[in-house]
Structure formats: structure tokens, C-alpha cells
Design a protein that fits this description.
InterPro entries: Flavoprotein-like_sf. By secondary structure, the protein is of the alpha/beta class. The chain is about 30% helix and about 20% strand. The chain has a single domain, classed as 3-Layer(aba) Sandwich (Rossmann fold). The longest helix is centred in the C-terminal third of the chain and has 14 residues.
Length: about 160
């Protein structure tokens, strides 16, 4: 899945952008399921951080996720990201084994400090082992979480 997806009519006024950084593929898998869940309510663009837009103009919900590790490209993108006019809500996620700390906490902090409104704390999706595959049911959790995020957004008009 990539690019723009949306299951309802284009009359909706809200738009989402899901950006991810992955080393082992787990964050990409979760990002794809988040995009699918959001697409039930609004148009969604899905991008790897290396192809992500540098401005959130026209975006109502920004979701950013990563897997464990130090990702210079994600930090570079965050440091050059320009928040568009108007309110932009944001949410963060990570994929991790139980032994790993949350990799998205710094992303959450950065977004909050640059004017994004975080809708809720970072959501973690769990791996069976470090660098390993996602635990069973995590992709369904990601889709349900995305539907929850979309349902909780206030109606916005441009």
C-alpha cells in the first residue's frame, strides 16, 4: 500500500499523512495498517521518511512511527518539517520488543515542542523478539487504533 487511499467520497475535508521509518519492515507494516484504518474516514498519504513531504499544509492528522534504533533520517526530517497553517493533530507509534525502550518518545516530544497537538501518548506495537516479526494480532490493533484516532478528531473545515 502506498500513496493516497480513501474508501469514502472525496467530500470529506480532513486529510491524514502517515510517515514511517523502518529497518526491519515492522514499522512499515504497522504504518500500512494504520493508513488503511484511517482511510475508512479520510484521504491518507503514506510515506517512508525518505519520501515524506517537508510541510504539513493541508494535513489534519500526522501519524509518525519508527522501529527500534537510531534513525538520523527521521530526526533530520523532523528538524526540517514545517507545520502548515491551522491545527495539526499528531500521533506517534513504534514497534518494539518488550526489552526495548520506546523509540517514538523523542518523536512525540519533538512534535509537541514544534506546535503539533498530540492526540494521545505513543502507541507501541510489539515484536516477538528484537528485530523480529510482529506478534500475532498487532496489525489488527494498528487498524483499530487508527479508526479510534480518526473517530476522535473534531470536524474540521477548510
Amino acid at each position: 500500500m502506498g500513496g493516497n487511499t480513501h474508501e469514502q467520497g472525496e467530500a470529506d475535508t480532513m486529510r491524514a499523512l502517515v510517515v514511517y521509518r523502518t529497518t526491519h519492515g515492522s514499522a512499515r507494516t504497522i504504518a500500512e495498517h494504520i493508513a488503511a484504518g484511517l482511510a475508512r474516514r479520510m484521504p491518507v498519504d503514506l510515506a517512508d521518511v525518505t519520501n515524506a513531504p517537508s510541510c504539513t499544509a493541508g494535513v489534519d492528522l500526522l501519524v509518525v512511527g519508527t522501529d527500534p534504533g537510531h534513525h538520523d533520517d527521521l530526526h533530520h526530517w523532523l528538524n526540517t518539517l514545517h507545520k502548515g497553517p491551522g491545527p495539526v493533530r499528531a500521533a506517534t507509534f513504534d514497534t518494539r520488543a518488550d526489552t526495548n525502550p520506546s523509540a517514538a518518545r523523542t518523536v512525540e516530544h519533538h512534535l509537541r515542542s514544534t506546535g503539533f497537538h498530540l492526540t494521545e501518548p505513543t502507541r507501541s506495537f510489539h515484536l516477538r523478539r528484537p528485530g523480529g516479526p510482529l506478534r500475532s494480532g498487532e496489525t489488527d490493533r494498528a487498524r483499530r487504533w487508527a479508526e479510534h484516532l480518526a473517530a476522535g478528531l473534531p470536524a474540521l473545515t477548510r
